[in-house]
Amino acid sequence: MAQPGNARAHRGTIFVENASVVSQQEFPGRQYVLRLTAPETAARATAGSFAHVSVDPSVPMRRPLSIMRVDRKAGWIELLYKIHGEGLAHLASRRAGDLVNLLGPIGQGFTPDPQRPRALLIGGGVGIPPMVFLAETLRERAAEGFQSLAILGSELPFPFRARPSTIVVPGMPDGVIACMPLLDEWGVPSRLTTRAGFPGCHDGYVTDLARLWLAQLDPTVRNQVQVFSCGPTPMLRAVAALAREFDLPCQVSLEEYMACAVGGCAGCAVEVQTPAGPAMKRVCVDGPVFDASTVFVN
User: Fold this and answer.
1) pTM as predicted
2) Domain range holding 213?
């Protein structure tokens, strides 16, 4: 059970905002990128945190959506989501100038270790946004030696227009050249995977391509790698196993259904291994980011 002090640690860091829609961009597969003016959330968000969004006055339950990008100076955030059911269909109908109420930023984000400056970012589906946010964060910390490789997977068309990368990544199979354009423009190498046959993508899972890349690294270089991931639970379990296989530290951002998202209902609790033994932790405020070895123990 969490100690009272820990239970209150997030108080004072979550804000209620009436955010204004700046733009809403639709992609195939009922996927949307929503940009909102939300200066309080933008100022405090970290890679891995999320916003709890009211989708419509007629829908009482909010929806937790990962933050993909922020511009602290301009005061906006971007959220990527895929329509599942009526609630997010309401959100998809919002247009520029509409107000969207949200709570944010919520959750503990990723904590990169400067002793392992080579970051392997693995994102699947709607788990892509935290990887984009983390890639931008590490790019801003390049002076500390951080460099990233993003491997992103989807069975739906990607929520961006993939194109051939301008960045060579040693160890990639021939023909695996598709990238996320935004990351390429930032100078962050990325490669895409799918089993849907999209051109330029690796035919397989994100862990298949990550294994190929890790296996060809010199052991000295591989010892500088740390893994970060977000996506469906089966994918995260496979990423955790891959990290164990190569003896690499790994942080995962969990996806769970949430009611309150501020730690009150404990409906999103998961079992986590701690030095004192197994404990139930709330994904919303104790996570969503956890050390993979404490969540996926085998």
Assistant:
1) 0.94
2) 118-295
Domain membership flag for residue 112: no
Cβ atoms 70, 77 nearer than 8 A: yes
User: Given a cut of 90, is residue 272 above it in pLDDT?
Assistant: yes
CA distances to 29, 178, 248, 270 from 33, rounded to whole Å, are: 12, 20, 32, 29
d(CA 52, CA 36): 13
Give just the sign of the alpha carbon dihedral 289, 290, 293, 294.
negative
Domain closes at, from 73, 106, 139: 106
Encoded amino acid at 103, one letter: L
CA torsion angle for 254, 9, 50, 294 (degrees, to 10)? -10
Rounded Cα–Cα distance for residues 171 and 194 (Å): 18
For all residues of the chain together, what is the average pLDDT? 93
- Tell me the backbone φ, ψ of residue 295, rounded to 5 degrees: -105, -45
Residue 220 contacts by C-beta under 8 Å, 6 or more apart in sequence?
none
